[in-house]
From TrEMBL:
Membrane topology: Multi-pass membrane protein
Source species: Noctiluca scintillans (Sea sparkle)
Positions in coiled-coil regions: none
Localization per record: Membrane
Residue ranges of the TM segments: 44-67, 87-105, 117-137, 144-165, 185-206, 213-231, 257-278, 285-308
Name this polypeptide is given: Uncharacterized protein
Family statement: Belongs to the major facilitator superfamily. Folate-biopterin transporter (TC 2.A.71) family.
Amino acid sequence: GETFELVDKEQKQFASSGAQSLSKLFFYEPFGLLSWIGELSDHFGYRLLVILFVSQHTIKGFVMSALGPAKQYLFASYMVEGPRMQIFTGVVALPWAMKPVIGLMSDAFPILGYNKGPYVVCFAVLGTLGCTIVGAVQQSYLTVELVVACMFLISLEISSCDLLTEAKYSEKIQACPQWGPSLVTYVWFGMNVGGLFAGMIIGPMLELSGPKMVYLMCVVPLCSILLPSWMNYFEETRLTSQEAAAMRQKLFAQKEACFLCILMLLCTVSLSVLGIFFESVRLNCIAAVVVAFVILGSFSVTFTPIIAK
């Protein structure tokens, strides 16, 4: 009896160790994913990996890929014609052209002594509010112009979080350049996985529940960056008023760059207002062409030809 118990015990131990070996073989050894992330955490800190997971993988990867198709279906539910839909789509994408202004503002005017975290919190609140309105408020109470304004706020959150987290991990890469390619791989790998996951579920969700449910689903991912930003996962050191003033003086000394940032902001706001409140396709087309010539001309005059290109 004892012999059979020993044999049975050894078989169970062997099976358990075999299962662990297979698990290790199929999940850990081919990619070394966990050990690789652990090494990244050792070199860059877990806080940076968390903030990149939320901003790049979840918000930029998953949310952007999910809201892209839903946006087209939502415009179609308002019976928006093709040319006007293209104008609205361009307006929604305009916050990506505001990234230089956002970067200048966050560096020149820190909030409570911090350059990144408070700005991310503010933009995340606006984006989450816009997404909640689009998803939760009945369509009969929302005009298409208000929907576009809410989508603009969502894009503003995504673009600003993308900019400020990219600035942070660029600083980290400069401090540890030999692990820079691995960190960039972590960012883009997770971003593509998030986009792939969104692509897998977005079709059935649109068919079964409609585009507004997609926006409701994205509320939680959009607000997920609030907590790590509030807890200073950007690992910022609080600036004194003297340090902030010195930074402003240094930035404002670059008059050409500041001028171009302000010009891009004015052009972005102008195109947004025209696109939302004026239905004329010709007017919006003329405005876009004029803005393009103004921006290109300003860059050509302000910078040398090599930099302007």
